[in-house]
Q: What sequence folds into this?
């Protein structure tokens, strides 16, 4: 299944596409404490980039702490759940346990005060489980998934490990990016180099991305994303404990606890339901990317956002949340430290690591009309 096999060194848990999600206000984040700088042999930025691209990972287990202080507006109507649900990763501090044993075996467990959520991939089988709701979904791959869609139950696309976050950051390296060496550090008891990525375009809300790379294993131990002008990370994911030994196979076996409601996923049925929903809502998703590099803007047209579901209660919940957003710049807008979103009156959604004013300018561009 491509969700777990694509670039196994850097993307070994769940998909790593950043989702723009409207949620409650973030909790102030502070950088994770590290020891004094270790004395490491010098390496250039180019050498560290090669290290990241050529590192080999046979097995790994550890504890990951994720902190998010994105400065999002408080919109309780769109909250994804309690602290043990993967949708909660967009705000506050969270602890995850991770295991990896080759491209066919991976597990992520989000630990919360009110329960636990797991994603377990083992060969052709993928399980998602939520202890609070007492539900589990089982997806069995038939080997006929060339599009790499995989299970539809992964509830959050934010990076859940330093590897995933680093993979996203590496995609940004092009002529619009300045790459340099930062300070060495000791993270999770291991020596690490630091690679710093900075946008050359000052219009980006992102100031820099800092990757701490294990000096021996050449794998990311920590990734920090800093907003322009801020000294503290708006988003950070880091190992606090890590072992590069291959975990026992028992870690990837899921036996539903007594009383768990198990749903067997049917990919064909899910695709059919999506088609019926699109027909019922009249939605014809269109999208385009305007601009390049760090200041590019994603434009989507799916009809009015609240009409993207056939569930009246869910549609009302979405519309109520949208109505709480301030009017301005040609529609409903909100902005965080790292990105902004504009929902226009004609049913488009624009998002990017730029200011709301920049989104308004893009919305007026004929190329963003998506007609």
A:
């Amino acid at each position: 299944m491509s969700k777990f096999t694509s670039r196994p060194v850097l993307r070994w848990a769940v998909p790593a596409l950043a989702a723009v999600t409207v949620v409650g206000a973030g909790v102030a984040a502070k950088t994770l404490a590290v020891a004094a700088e270790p004395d490491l042999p010098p390496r250039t930025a180019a050498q560290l980039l090669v290290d990241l691209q050529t590192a080999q990972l046979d097995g790994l287990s550890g504890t990951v702490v994720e902190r998010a202080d994105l400065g999002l507006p408080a919109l309780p109507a769109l909250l994804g759940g309690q602290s043990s649900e993967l949708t909660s990763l967009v705000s506050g501090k969270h602890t995850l346990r991770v295991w990896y044993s080759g491209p066919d075996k991976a597990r992520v467990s989000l630990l919360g005060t009110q329960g636990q959520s797991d994603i377990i991939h083992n060969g052709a089988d993928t399980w998602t489980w939520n202890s609070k709701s007492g539900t589990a979904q089982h997806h069995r791959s038939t080997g006929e998934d060339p599009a790499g869609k995989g299970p539809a139950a992964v509830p959050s696309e934010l990076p859940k490990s330093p590897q995933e976050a680093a993979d996203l950051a590496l995609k940004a390296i092009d002529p619009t990016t300045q790459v340099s060496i930062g300070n060495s550090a000791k993270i999770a008891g291991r020596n690490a180099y630091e690679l710093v990525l900075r946008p050359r375009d000052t219009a980006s809300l992102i100031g820099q991305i800092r990757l701490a790379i294990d000096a021996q294993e050449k794998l990311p131990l920590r990734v920090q994303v800093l907003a322009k002008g801020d000294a503290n990370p708006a988003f950070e994911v880091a190992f606090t404990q890590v072992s590069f030994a291959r975990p026992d196979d028992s870690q990837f076996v899921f036996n539903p606890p007594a009383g768990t409601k198990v749903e067997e996923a049917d990919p064909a049925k899910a695709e059919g339901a999506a088609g019926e929903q699109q027909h019922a809502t009249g939605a014809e998703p269109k999208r385009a990317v305007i601009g390049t590099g760090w200041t590019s803007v994603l434009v989507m047209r799916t009809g009015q956002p609240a009409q993207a579901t056939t569930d009246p209660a869910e549609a009302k919940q979405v519309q109520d949340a949208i109505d709480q957003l301030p009017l301005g710049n040609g529609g409903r807008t909100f902005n965080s430290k790292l990105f902004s979103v504009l929902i226009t009156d004609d049913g488009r959604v624009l998002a990017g690591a730029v200011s709301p004013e920049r989104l308004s300018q893009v919305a007026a561009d004929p190329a963003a009309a998506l007609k």
Summary: Helices lie at 2-5, 45-54, 162-171, 267-281, 312-323, 356-363. Residues 2-252 form a domain with the outer membrane lipoprotein receptor (LolB), chain A fold (CATH 2.50.20.10). The first helix runs from residue 2 to 5. The longest strand covers residues 190-199.
